[in-house]
Write a structure and sequence with these properties.
The chain has about 110 residues and is α+β, with helices and mostly antiparallel strands. It has one domain (about 15-105): Rossmann fold (3-Layer(aba) Sandwich), CATH 3.40.50. The protein has helices at about 25-40, 65-75; strands at about 15-20, 45-50, 75-90, 90-105. A four-stranded mixed β-sheet has the order 1-2-4-3. The two termini are about 20 Å apart.
């Protein structure tokens, strides 16, 4: 299990992800979401920030669509919001376009 050593199954500690989801391929993303659901107790909160498909150019990590995020978390999570955001990056003062997810474990 990806997070077994980090979070106990009874944890009510919010989980923060800033930049992991968008570096995973499709199978890795499915394992990641499944692992989170296994270790976060019902009612637990997830806050996630990932690169957005709205970011122009082809440099940097994979960009995710709003729909990809919604589908990935729709089974075990109640999605509170998926909002446009900015990730601060060192090489561009404007930052990178991102999605910010807030969700609660079902």
């Amino acid at each position: 299990m990806l997070f077994a050593s980090l979070i106990s199954a009874s944890s009510s500690t919010p989980v923060l992800d800033c930049g992991l989801l968008h570096v995973l391929d499709d199978p890795g993303r499915k394992r990641y979401v499944r692992s989170l659901a296994e270790v976060v107790a019902p009612g637990g909160r997830l806050h996630l920030l990932c690169f957005s498909d709205r970011q122009p150019g082809d440099w940097g990590p994979r960009r995710l669509t709003h729909d990809e995020i919604q589908v990935a978390f729709s089974v075990s999570w109640k999605i509170e919001s998926i909002e446009p955001a900015i990730i601060d990056i060192t090489w561009d003062p404007a930052g990178a376009l991102a999605w910010q997810l807030a969700a609660t474990r079902k």
